[in-house]
Design a protein that fits this description.
Layout (H helix, E strand, L loop, with lengths): L6 H20 L2 H16 L2 H7 L2 H18 L21 H12 L3 H12 L4 H8 L3 H17 L7
Helix pairs in contact: 1-2, 1-4, 2-4, 4-6, 4-7, 6-8, 7-8
Length: 160
């Protein structure tokens, strides 16, 4: 049986991937940083229990999505929308494509955006996504279908 990672080990190995997921959820580099930090603080308080359960990634992702949803419900006043991409982004796609994808994701309601990020960016199964979000697999499927329909119709993702 493999030992669970310490909090520091987990953050060192998964921090960048968590930030990228948070950036796709929030659309803003600073808010992504805040989201990851807030979720990790929530997890750090219960790290021994989380690590013992063996589902560290799922728990941290769920903390991120829950925190993101809470911020959206409260209409977080710290939001500063920006069209700029973060300096640390190292994707292969060109700048225009990245902006278009982010703009298209911003059209989705928070639940659909979370499902799309978890399913297609974090590469989770429908079952894993349902577990992380605390919803049924059927809801994951319907949210995915609705989100993909919206994205297909988005002016930002039209082929030139």
């Amino acid at each position: 049986m493999e030992a669970s990672p310490t909090f520091e080990e987990y953050v060192a190995t998964r921090g960048r991937a968590l930030w990228r997921s948070a950036w796709l959820l929030t659309g803003d580099a600073q808010r992504a940083e805040d989201l990851v930090q807030t979720a990790l603080v929530k997890c750090w308080r219960r790290w021994d229990k989380i690590a013992a359960d063996g589902s560290v990634d799922g728990y941290v992702r769920r903390a991120m999505v829950t925190t993101f949803t809470d911020w959206r419900r409260r209409r977080w006043e710290g939001e500063v929308p920006t069209a700029e991409l973060p300096a640390g982004w190292n994707g292969d796609a060109d700048l225009a494509v990245r902006r278009d994808v982010l703009s298209a994701l911003a059209l989705l309601p928070r639940g659909q955006r979370a499902v799309i990020v978890l399913r297609f960016y974090d590469d989770l199964t429908e079952s894993q996504t349902a577990h992380v979000l605390g919803i049924s697999v059927g809801t994951v499927k319907s949210q995915t279908a609705r989100a993909l329909k919206t994205l297909r119709m988005s002016e930002f993702l039209e082929e030139s």
